[in-house]
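User: Can you predict the 3D structure for this chain?
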Amino acid sequence: MSDADTLLVLMGSAQDGGVPQLGMHEAGMVERTAASAAVLGSGGEALLLDASPDVRRQQRALLEYPRYAARHGNAFDGILLTHGHMGHYAGLVQFGMEAHNADLVPCWGTRRMGTFLRSNEPWARLFREGHLVFYEIAPGEAFQPIPGLMAEAIAVPHRDEYTDTVGYVITAPSGRAALYLPDIDGWDTWDAADAVIGRVDVAVLDATFYDENEILGRLMAEVPHPYAVDTVARFREYRETTQFVLSHLNRSNPLCDPESSASAWVRSEGFAVAWDGMAVEL
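Assistant: Here is the predicted structure, written as structure tokens:
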């Protein structure tokens, strides 16, 4: 168990539907919950990055950290939301009266994210009844979600049916910074890629699919994501200064199996594959 002042805990590592997904019968798959993370401060402060459908189970796993287990009241001191796809906000319902009954938990997101949540039930009820309080943030502007921790939303291109999409750069009191970016259409359409990767110590990146042969019979234009093999090639030059973690794995991705040749290749290139509960020191 790490005693670092600030920890980034990857509570989930799968695409929105988890692994295995509902309706799957394959045996032997490594189970993964939907991508989500928590930042734990030295005093037990806890910041949630995306509220996945598996948040109830994921939060229980944090109790193995004594600093978190000793806290009382709200399960989290704040929530940062990246965008409005199922795996990233559906867990907010767990903060309502029928479940956690949270009290005035700050929730940060873009203007479109706030409009979406407050215009649709059951999400609107969470804010109306005071379980959550929404704070609008603009990409590029730093803010302090919990004491000593700075956050900055980074706009990225993604399918924006309901909301726009951001990643977050989280800077710990130590000065170490992490990028949490579980969803993006592709690296070539993100002009700020090199500038952002070049200033962080840790980068948790979208690796939904491994390569172009993974989901034959379906148009990739319908579900655009960078391939893991391309991500490794694209950011290989930053390996000496940035710790890379590939996350948000689709059920078809061979990286879901830590014993696969794909996982071995990624590791040989100096990149890590996320697992549920993986902790990174900041």
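Residues 7-281 form a domain with the Metallo-beta-lactamase; Chain A fold (CATH 3.60.15.10). The chain is about 20% helix and 25% strand.
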